[in-house]
Write a structure and sequence with these properties.
The structure is a homotetramer of 346-residue chains. In chain A, the strands form three sheets. In chain A, strands 3, 4, 5, 6, 7, 15 and 16 form a seven-stranded mixed beta sheet that branches. A six-stranded parallel beta sheet of chain A has the order 10-9-8-11-12-14, sandwiched between helices. Chain A has twelve helices and 16 strands. In chain A, α8 links the parallel β11 and β12. In chain A, α4 packs across α5. The first copy, chain A, is globular and about 60 Å long. By secondary structure, chain A is an alpha/beta fold. Chains in contact: A-B, A-C, A-D, B-C, B-D, C-D. Chains A and D meet through β12, β13, α9 and β14 of A and β12, β13, α9 and β14 of D. β14 of chain A pairs antiparallel with β14 of chain D.
Chain lengths: 346, 346, 346, 346
């Protein structure tokens, strides 16, 4: 079969690999019909994720069809259409039993990371019964690819951890795909204001279309001053960090209201300064989270019932065989006005 | 001044009464500019609320202008436009300190009940600092009358107690004004389905316009069977009782899913049968609540930010002096297709 | 092997049965070293649980040693000492994934009910990885038998659902084994008062030894009057029903404070009257629950760290082969001052 | 009257001051019978709290007797014995209405800070109805002084924010008075382990007496290594920072388990480094809080019901007139083995 293979920093190829086989009775083999590219894949290609080794098939998102199921798999059978979760969950360890699948002792984020991933014609999915979801009959499979990672990440790490509430004020720092996923899912809770902060006007325009009530361009505007004006000097109840650098995390500390929450989504490579001399008496909460994907069934319900239009996040379509070209588009997201790209293989 | 005065079961009159005066330093006198009639007022007139005595001015909802403020009032002054809460809260007792204003040791529901109410040209509001809210500049005061009682009641007793969640299924039994208030505010949480159950097709049509995803006429249809069909045989996650009779409460017990909640809003005059022989192992929760009006500031935010169109609940307008005619319309709600009526006095 | 077998209402025998074998790859066979008898077993013998059929081996509690493990079992191997949960959990269905194992689509309470149970020399445990717990090295296995059912039931259905809090007042109606399990585990939360209500003075004396701060004999005393005296007329914040008949459930409604919770543990065979005419405005919560056993790992921690002395619940010891005699003792609990009996098989 | 007056960094005197008078109708004047000294008072004396100006009477803790009550005070009258909260709460602002009294728009921490405090023969308490608590008849008033600040601070900022749970593992960094207050109140929730970390063996010995299950001297031992050994390599579920310097806050980040909480109590004068490069995927929560004193009534219940022995925190007694000597003892806490000192004035 063909797959997108990592060959060390800066190197990848769409090349022939052996078709995966069942190793454990809880595995399935999935024929990939849709996949996508994540910002994390770009990090891997920069060499930022050293545990990914030469020869690894990338990708941790996708929709497909069960090709073969291990003999301990009870919930899925050959021919079933499935959504693949970016998080593999054994369903048995203490973390899985309390809904913290991200830290599953045998799973967690392993696809396209520690084991071969989904940017391929076929992939092996371990712990299938607790790591896959059935595609409802008649569903739009493009829309469902957004359930593999980006929607649960924006929702769980940003919106749920940030305790977005009806009538509250939310500030989201970063209007890239993941910030926009938080923006879309924050609207489940009818906040009064969602203020999007980003240095790129194109992205801010997208945010407005997606439901932001106000936008601040923090390359040209004083974000702290403007947010304080918008909030009677109080700050935002929920501040969502969707970038992953010290400067944006430190900005969040200036935006949060007394009693508020900073919910981090960003993948950070460096430490940040925490201004405890200001914050110790401000009654705030800071959360971090690798997505658990516990919310996937609920998010699927919201898509099926038209409460969430996840297809808005998709800007480009490619054939799976053209994935190298798709990476080029996604790497130049600003130039291409790209959010998520869909790779199809039917 | 003129006021709507109760004279025992079946008797009321729009008649001259002494203008109220400040009694305690925490009182204010409000000139009423808008008021409305509640189903509870009809109960009083039927004689169902014996602690209401002859001579009492009715009404516990309204918007007005501060005419005079007691000398311990710090948050309001003459000329301020205010929303009156149906619940008076002293702000000091243990119930008030934990947000359960409904059970305030000196307040609670007293307006138009134990003290004179708001269906009058002027009214005395005790504990003004903790029982009134400022009308924002430029706000539509008709819309804000809905904040006195019906919206916080539908929201707190039905939606909050019912833990409505994104993607969940809600059933509301009763599509009168209070059931519709629950329907409107349930949508803050993006449930996948809101199924409205009522014997009146007109009311069900209103429910559809207000956002119900499905309706069941339980005079002609088998509500339990239909709801089970809509929910793969499981039942509803949240069931809201918005009628107040044994039959509807008992219906709720048949509609609720394992692990679900029955949130009672209805004012009950009789006991109901609780089928513990079925429910003991079903992991359900039943809640009751007299509205606390803790959510009023939040609901005001949602109205101001256009997340909630509370004016949809208003079907009729009268001059305050025509309140007897307004009662007639409201008492014949089905005939008149009436929800809430607004009485104006400018 | 030998087992205690049900032969229809009133009939049981300790008799020869075929030793169980692995049926599914997720099964294990456990050699029972300790088991006990539950009030539910007595209900079965009275014929109250008709789905239990002639020939069924009873029992859903116990500790033992793995004799054989199916080939999909990854967490347990031959020779491991294990605690058996009364609830079997597949770990995969939507109920299991949200911690509501009681309603597992393939499991739930099936041991000694729909499949053969633990009052036998050997038993087959399905879904072993998610239905068993390792016995810590050196632990007292008698104490751990209390983790199969009675402690998680008292804790989850009574204490957790009842939201017992530091400084609060708890009333427990019923001072039998399950009420006492609630009493022991309520003390995890340092309530100011735990008031035990029962018609049997012996049981109330046990309750005092186990930590009750006050007792009321409701055969000779007016429980409502006394509880109101103990609580300044307010009632109890948490009321736990640990009997299972209409009279005790109705008593709970008179004991609960405004804003309080009635947490039902009792197994009810009949409906009860719910006094909504009083309760609708009292802001109370009523919960029901079949135990999920989600708290078992936590309870094991509290036993190991000496925060909970579960052995206090054990009053009698028998050899497993003498189980018919043990049933006789347990059936005459009042006469024998019996709480839990341990049956050993080493 | 006599009072302890601040005269700029390093300077204080027990000297004559005018007896306070009622200024607002919600004020009371309290004759102080017991007060104490807080670590914050030492900070003020070092000049770390510049908003405290020359001439200010220090102190924000105490018990006393109402001398005079303003005419809008309804809950207290001359002669009542009262506990003074370190936080003044107006009871009306949006922060007070949601239980966040620390950020009261007109109150918060003002006593001995922005207005004259409690280290005096008399003090004026604003917002008396919502800032004082009645001393129960017969209570030990020494014990109740601990309710003014140290117990609610340890409990709310450390234990409540840290979500201490039965069976969990708690690490407390800092075994001074506030860390010990967290230790005492953490035991309300029956954690399996409470591990106390401090460089002073005397303090660690006190911690053991107060209920710590393990201690680590982090001047001579590797705290991270030892804690990991005690927790199977996982870390602590709750980590409470009770020191207030960057080094201890950074230590906390190394101690917390995936999914755990760092609850900050310490008063920080500098920023700390937040290791987001490690923590972003660890699903942790960090909280800060200035005490709200919402838990005071509950803590009073636990003292009255003997669930909490707050007198353990008191090591020294002085007459109020000897307060300068008491400061000397408290400033040399290590030398004197001092925790809290009581100053009496009867």
């Amino acid at each position: 079969m063909k797959a997108l293979v990592y060959h060390g920093p800066g190197k990848k190829a769409w090349e022939e690999k052996a078709k995966p086989v069942i190793r454990d009775p809880t595995d399935v083999i999935v024929k990939i019909t849709r996949t996508t590219i994540c910002g994390t894949d770009l990090h891997i290609l920069k060499g930022d994720v050293p545990e990914v080794t030469d020869g690894r098939i990338l990708g941790h998102e996708g929709v497909g069809i069960i090709e073969e199921a291990g003999n301990a798999v009870t919930g899925f059978k050959k021919g079933d259409h499935v959504i693949i979760s970016c998080i593999s969950s054994c369903g048995k360890c203490s973390y899985c039993r309390r809904g913290m699948y991200s830290h599953c002792e045998k799973g967690g984020w392993i696809l396209g990371h520690l084991i071969d991933g989904t940017q391929a014609e076929y992939t092996r999915i371990p712990f299938a019964d607790t790591s896959l979801y059935h595609v409802p009959a008649g569903a739009d499979e493009d829309a469902l690819v957004m359930l593999s990672d980006i929607l649960p990440t924006g929702f769980e790490c940003g919106v749920l951890n940030g305790k977005v509430q009806p009538g509250c004020t939310v500030a989201i720092v970063g209007s890239g795909p993941i910030g926009l996923a938080a923006l879309l899912t924050a609207q489940f809770y009818a906040p009064a204001e969602i203020i999007m902060i980003d240095p790129d006007n194109n992205r801010l325009n997208v945010a407005k279309k997606f439901g932001a009530t106000k936008t601040i361009n923090n390359s040209s505007e004083d974000a702290v001053k403007m947010l304080k004006e918008y909030t009677n000097g109080i700050g935002a109840d929920t501040v969502i960090e969707a970038v992953g650098i010290p400067a944006t995390f430190e900005l969040c500390q200036q935006l949060v209201a007394p009693g508020g929450i900073i919910a981090n989504i960003g993948v950070h490579g460096k430490s940040a300064e925490l201004h405890l001399e200001d914050l110790w008496a401000k009654n705030i909460t800071i959360t971090t989270r690798l997505v658990d994907t516990v919310s996937t069934p609920m998010l699927l319900n919201t898509i099926q019932s038209k409460k969430l239009n996840s297809k808005q996040l998709i800007t480009h379509h490619f054939k799976l065989a053209d994935i190298v070209q798709a990476y080029d588009t996604f790497e130049h997201a600003a130039r291409e006005n790209a959010l998520k790209v869909i790779l199809s293989n039917n």
